[in-house]
Design goal:
transcription regulation, disordered N terminus, MTERF, 58% helix, 17 helices, 2 domains, MTERF_sf, mainly alpha, globular, transit peptide, 313 residues, 0% strand, transcription
Length: 313
């Protein structure tokens, strides 16, 4: 069995969330009505969720009695999950309440426990629990784990869970197509592997998204594609709403001599918008700040309209 503390960090709730008690396992009879389906009542009474959240989450649920969801909760309890662990899991993935409890127990035994024994970190196991990959065939799951280890992934690192999600979420043909796309833009096999190890989620970007980001970065800006290999998380960002507006500000700063050519090209894209504005827009003299702010807002507006020159599908 899992030790109760295993998921403490991965699924801990904020003090605000826990303010009104932990887990409320109500034993009272739950009534139903056409305007207040059983699943909604269950989510509110069992977990203390808001009516708005419960109604939204109930769209993914398919039960009319408490038998199945109670059995699912019992499975989690058996494996050492705390009440707050379970509450947070269901908040993130309410569809789990409709799963076959026996199948879930089998999935935990055949996939999660073996991965835990490999030394996989808590956050990675949390991602496995809260995703559909927990239901893949055990043999396929084991093969993917071994393949990732052979690729150089360390099971104890935080990105191992993301790597599993990416590998199991893509067919071989789609995976290979993305590898070929990166190669087309000058990445070597080793460069691609390093990028995937650094940020596995880059493989979840569509080939079209990869091409569009590369097109803008390499052809429009004239920057080397190797920089993106050092920051593969860029492929997860919105091109029109983040990458393009910030790039235009960086180009403007370089042109005006306000930013060194040797400064990191990636750092402006990885910070929050608040930090970006503070560091790259609002920290200059009034006239420069006004110009940069206008440029940034204009490009954000263009991004809203999705009419960026050369970037339209």
């Amino acid at each position: 069995m899992f030790k109760p503390f295993l998921f403490h960090n991965a699924f801990r709730l904020s003090t605000t969330t826990l303010h009104h008690s932990s887990f409320q396992f109500s034993l009272r009879f739950l009534t139903t009505s056409p305007s207040h389906p059983f699943a909604v009542s269950y989510l509110i009474d069992k977990f203390g969720f808001s009516s708005e959240f419960a109604f939204k989450a109930s769209k993914t649920l398919h039960f009319k009695t408490s038998k199945n969801p109670d059995s699912v909760l019992n499975v989690f309890t058996t494996y050492g999950f705390t009440d707050s662990d379970i509450q947070n899991i269901i908040r993130r993935e309410p569809w789990l309440l409709s799963c076959n409890p026996r199948f879930m127990r089998s999935s935990l035994n055949n996939r999660v426990i073996p991965v835990y024994k490999l030394g996989v970190c808590d956050s990675s196991i949390a991602k496995i629990i809260c995703s559909h990959i927990i239901f893949c065939k055990p043999r396929v799951f084991e093969e993917m784990v071994e393949e990732l280890k052979n690729m150089g992934f360390d099971p104890s690192k935080i990105y191992f869970g993301d790597a599993l999600l990416a590998k199991l979420g893509l067919s071989k043909s789609k995976w290979d197509a993305k590898i070929d796309t990166f190669k087309k833009w000058g990445w070597s096999e080793e460069t691609i592997l390093e990028a995937i190890r650094k940020q596995p989620k880059c493989m979840l970007a569509s080939t079209d998204k990869i091409n569009r980001v590369m097109q803008f970065w390499v052809n429009d800006l004239g920057w080397d594609s190797s920089y993106l290999a050092k920051g593969p998380g860029m492929f997860s960002y919105a091109l029109e709403k983040r990458i393009v507006p910030r790039a235009m500000v960086v180009i403007c700063l370089q042109t005006k001599g306000l930013r060194s050519e040797s400064a990191s090209l990636l750092s402006p894209f990885y910070v929050s918008e608040k930090v970006f504005l503070e560091r790259f827009v609002l920290c200059f003299k009034e006239e420069e700040t006004a110009h940069l702010l206008n440029l940034y807002r204009t490009m954000m507006k263009v991004g809203d309209e999705k009419v960026l020159p050369g970037l339209v599908d």
